[in-house]
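Appendix B. Extra example for self-study. Work through it before the problem class; the solution is given directly after the inputs so you can check yourself.
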Amino acid sequence: GAGVSQSPRYKVAKRGQDVALRCDPISGHVSLFWYQQALGQGPEFLTYFQNEAQLDKSGLPSDRFFAERPEGSVSTLKIQRTQQEDSAVYLCASSLVLSTDTQYFGPGTRLTVL
Amino acid sequence: EDQVTQSPEALRLQEGESSSLNCSYTVSGLRGLFWYRQDPGKGPEFLFTLYSAGEEKEKERLKATLTKKESFLHITAPKPEDSATYLCAVGALTGGGNKLTFGTGTQLKVEL
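Solution. Structure tokens for the complete assembly:
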């Protein structure tokens, strides 16, 4: 079936604006992850869901970052009052059942904060 | 704290010139070591998972191996389409094993 999809693919925000990034995981995948990738770096973990439960949010850099997955499928990463340092690619990944299963990544959303 | 170091940062090969990429890691109990390929403007694409020292996996021109401290991605007779950034990541047994810690990647360029 279809892979992980993310929207929008590109987002430009003015400093101080709020943004919402969407992730549609692979159908039937229970676990969902968000990562942040700065230019020239590897992805860094932000948060993890199992179904609708957010089990780990240790990587969220500040309380301006908020993620939800209310029905255990689609997830939204929200960033409030964006700052220039938030500019990065935000990647979503999903895995079948256990958090230990292979994670499959979406194409990412490139966020640029001016 | 889990750490992953990849070398070299960048590698330029001629078509057909075999080589290896290195991934050194420290982790508090290895759940799995993962190799991904990332093309510009795209998300990481899964290649391999290795679970224990001595394990090897192959896919076309790629072969991944694992020891207790490092993993190698061997590329045999590469082609230009193998050009990409190769990312290594570890998952730890602690903390529910739910997050991957990535290295910064090796940017591979294969020229004709």
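Self-check: Chain B has a mean pLDDT of 94. If your reasoning did not lead you there, revisit section 3.
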